[in-house]
Amino acid sequence: MFPIHRPRRLRTSSQLRRMVRETVLTTNDLIYPLFAVPGQAIAKEVKSMPGVYQLSVDKIVEEAKEVYDLGIPGIILFGIPEDKDADATGAWHDCGIVQKAATAVKEAVPDLVVIADTCLCEYTSHGHCGYLQVGDLSGRVLNDPTLELLKKTAVSQAKAGADIIAPSGMMDGFVQAIRVALDEAGYLDTPILSYAAKYASAYYGPFRDAAESTPQFGDRRTYQMDPGNAREALKEIALDIAEGADMLMVKPALAYMDVIWRVKEASNLPVAAYNVSGEYSMVKAAALNGWIDEERVVMETLTSFKRAGSDLILTYHAKDAARWLND
Ligand code: PBG
Ligand code: ZN
């Protein structure tokens, strides 16, 4: 008899397919990014990211309620400050925009997990992720002096109510520096979600419109990772684990599925994947042109991140995905 094995037997009905499905996406897996701006009643759509808005704190609170009601467990906050300067004051000031947003959200929706992205690029006048040597036009951020600002930033975010601190600047020693600073300030139980393997990627383009954080000169290649490297991701991960990271992130996601897989195999920590702005914008553009079925493409992609090993997915599709999952 030919053939004995007919794998199609298990695909004959949707009930059977459900029974043997290995990976199932749930709303628990999703984290929704939000961009906070100063002002009142502001909701300004980001040109390159249809459906994504810069929101004033009052609107962030409304959005947080909606996210919570959809069953999404957490948000990650980014901020666009009133003023930018060489010391990234807006990042670490107790009245900074992310601090205000975090406090307001925790007050209105206490059970929603608030993650604070900890970096300086939205707050520096030149758009780099830390201090530069005077006259440097290449963007070689000074590592150790920058850590001092990042420590202050992390502590003030925790003080404002952030439940999780997410260091994203790719500075050496970042995790250990903020772990010690958080502990000394009494935030022993505030976990660190480290952007451990973050690549220098063209996929961040639309985010930089949203966060107004495009470097004025140079690029981020002296601190973010080279796209050709996967073993180096394992080195970054090992260092962050040793420094006290509680969760690890790979970013971007789509072009780095192999890295997600390797990180999952190499550690026993929860792994997050950041489905970044450029990945979102490409799907939205194709969907708006009627070239792809948005729901099916999004659900397939998010499920695949999970299949590749991510426990959590940071995605601008989170609200849509939650609605589709809840339907
Ligand atoms: C800040 C930061 C960036 C993103 C998250 N945190 C951008 C960058 O490194 O320029 C990108 C997110 C996205 O593209 O959706 N360091
Ligand atoms: Zn940055």
From TrEMBL:
<keyword id="KW-0350">Heme biosynthesis</keyword>
<keyword id="KW-0456">Lyase</keyword>
<protein>
    <recommendedName>
        <fullName>Delta-aminolevulinic acid dehydratase</fullName>
        <ecNumber>4.2.1.24</ecNumber>
    </recommendedName>
</protein>
<dbReference type="Pfam" id="PF00490">
    <property type="entry name" value="ALAD"/>
</dbReference>
<comment type="similarity">
    <text>Belongs to the ALAD family.</text>
</comment>
<comment type="pathway">
    <text>Porphyrin-containing compound metabolism; protoporphyrin-IX biosynthesis; coproporphyrinogen-III from 5-aminolevulinate: step 1/4.</text>
</comment>
<dbReference type="InterPro" id="IPR001731">
    <property type="entry name" value="ALAD"/>
</dbReference>
<comment type="function">
    <text>Catalyzes an early step in the biosynthesis of tetrapyrroles. Binds two molecules of 5-aminolevulinate per subunit, each at a distinct site, and catalyzes their condensation to form porphobilinogen.</text>
</comment>
<dbReference type="InterPro" id="IPR030656">
    <property type="entry name" value="ALAD_AS"/>
</dbReference>
<dbReference type="GO" id="GO:0004655">
    <property type="term" value="F:porphobilinogen synthase activity"/>
</dbReference>
<dbReference type="InterPro" id="IPR013785">
    <property type="entry name" value="Aldolase_TIM"/>
</dbReference>
<comment type="subunit">
    <text>Homooctamer.</text>
</comment>
<keyword id="KW-0627">Porphyrin biosynthesis</keyword>
